[in-house]
TrEMBL record:
GO biological process: one example: peptidoglycan metabolic process
Name of the protein in question: Lytic transglycosylase
GO MF annotations in UniProt: peptidoglycan lytic transglycosylase activity
Classification via SUPFAM superfamilies: Lysozyme-like
Organism, scientific name: Massilia psychrophila
PANTHER family, per database record: MEMBRANE-BOUND LYTIC MUREIN TRANSGLYCOSYLASE C, SOLUBLE LYTIC MUREIN TRANSGLYCOSYLASE-RELATED
Annotated ranges, domain LysM: 321-366
Family: Belongs to the transglycosylase Slt family.
């Protein structure tokens, strides 16, 4: 059911990272007669991951007032650097390793500091998600699945692969890393238009020459990365203390082929649910759907615990299944009663807002019953499930309106209306004055 994937450590790479100040090319080790003191691959290994990143810097530097501004912002916020570094410690080794495999500049591993502060749960007002901040459309362009059960824009492996592929594509278009980065933030079409405009005016088309045509966010984007790059290159110069990050894999990937509750997976791995989610932030629901592409990430020692505990697990791995809403009569309360749970559990499992009901045609998660105890959720359901909400109807109020009034109630209401009308005529002026006073106070507060 679960197969542990091997972890390839940096020590097994067949190349040596270039020394600081080189062009960034990778030097190959040529087999030769063993010298008196045989060097091992580990002898070339940086002890600290920040050092490994420094040796692969390859993007030309820029130096302007915006860079200085952002250096000041970061160096005067040690708490921000500490929090970001703590989050980055889980993912940074993987990102650096993938950059080196593709022969890309290693300072690109610092880009998520700019995008999301290495928070894979980050979500922007423009609907960008994950530590690389993909918007839905670009995510789909790079085959990042986005459905009711998972959003691969937040997945560590999937989003990193997509981001590096996108950056490679942009570099191929512009032949220049600053422009590729600007396009990553602003869109390649906008950068192309800016280039054509400067070309028509006989002006240069490098990043700094195009900066005035860019929105403020993009104009600051490359200087922000340069600022972080400067601080990582020489933290002491800026009075920054970088928390060390070990130059070794933080996690390993486990293939899975059957459904499993997120809480059960965390329990088997002997991890807290929060730590499990930090490595597997793409899962939207309390059940992880099993398919050939699904992987869960675990620290190496916890992956071993997971395998051991799984072999001893004698219960169902998943307690959830799906149910399709067929009509308005299927309220959350009635579904909770039918599936032996509470409305609060169903709302929480499906992220149903308060005072909202589920529209007909929607698919929701419900607890398994005996007839579905050993059945996984079908792939077709996973790919096509939709969930839509509408304002919850107030059945109690509707029922009160629907009840006809008795003859006595009608006579009582008429008498009350008649008395109110007489009082209104006698005290009309006084009533108007009483109403005007609070309106005046309200206007003063508003001003």
């Amino acid at each position: 059911m679960f197969l542990a994937a091997p972890v390839v450590s940096y020590a097994n790479d067949v190349s040596v990272p270039p020394q600081a100040g080189t062009s960034g090319a990778v030097a190959k080790i040529t087999p030769m007669s063993p010298p008196q003191s045989v060097l091992k691959a580990d002898d070339f290994k940086e002890a600290d991951l920040w050092g490994r990143i420094r040796t692969g810097y390859a993007i030309p530097d820029i130096n302007n007032v915006l860079v200085d501004k952002h250096v000041t912002w970061y160096r005067t916020r040690p708490d921000h650097i500490a929090r970001t570094s703590a989050r980055a410690s889980r993912y940074l080794y993987h990102v650096v390793q993938e950059l080196e495999k593709r022969g890309m500049p290693t300072e690109l591993a610092l880009l998520p500091i700019i995008e999301s502060a290495f928070n894979p749960q980050a979500y922007s007002s423009a609907n960008a998600a994950g530590m690389w901040q993909f918007v839905p459309g670009t995510g789909k362009d790079f085959n990042l699945k986005q459905n009711m059960f998972k959003d691969e824009r937040r997945g560590v492996l999937t989003s990193t692969d997509a981001a590096l592929s996108y950056l490679q594509k942009l570099y191929g278009m512009f032949g220049d890393w600053p422009l590729a980065l600007a396009a990553y933030n602003w869109g390649e079409g906008n950068v192309q238009k800016a280039i054509k405009k400067n070309q028509s005016l006989g002006k240069p088309t490098d990043f700094e020459s195009l900066a005035d045509l860019m929105p403020a966010e993009t104009r600051n984007y490359v200087p922000k990365l340069q600022a972080v790059k400067n601080i990582i290159a020489n933290p002491g110069q800026f009075g920054v203390s970088l928390p060390p990050i070990g130059n070794e894999a933080y996690f390993t990937a486990i293939d899975k082929t059957s459904d499993i509750d997120l809480t059960i997976a965390a329990q088997l791995a002997e991890l807290s649910v929060d730590e499990f989610k930090a490595l597997n932030p793409q899962f939207n629901r309390p059940v992880i759907i099993g398919d050939e592409q699904t992987k869960i990430l675990l620290p190496k020692e916890n992956a071993e615990k997971f395998t051991t505990n799984l072999a001893k697990w004698g219960q169902s791995l998943s307690t959830w299944t799906t149910h399709k809403i067929t009509g308005a009569r299927e309220s959350i309360a009635s579904l909770a009663s039918r599936f032996g749970t509470t409305p609060e559990v169903i709302r929480q499992a499906n992220n149903i807002p308060a005072k909202s009901s589920v529209r007909a045609g929607s698919t929701i998660l419900v607890p398994k019953i005996s007839t579905s105890a050993n059945i996984d959720i079908a792939e077709q359901i996973v790919d096509n499930a939709v969930l839509a909400f509408e304002a919850e109807r107030s059945t109690a109020r509707g029922a009160r309106r629907a009840q006809p009034e008795s003859r006595a109630q009608k006579l009582k209401a008429r008498a009350a209306n008649a008395v109110a009308e007489i009082k209104s005529r006698v005290t009309g002026k006084r009533a108007k004055a009483m109403v005007a006073e609070p309106q005046s106070r309200h206007r003063k507060r508003a001003s």
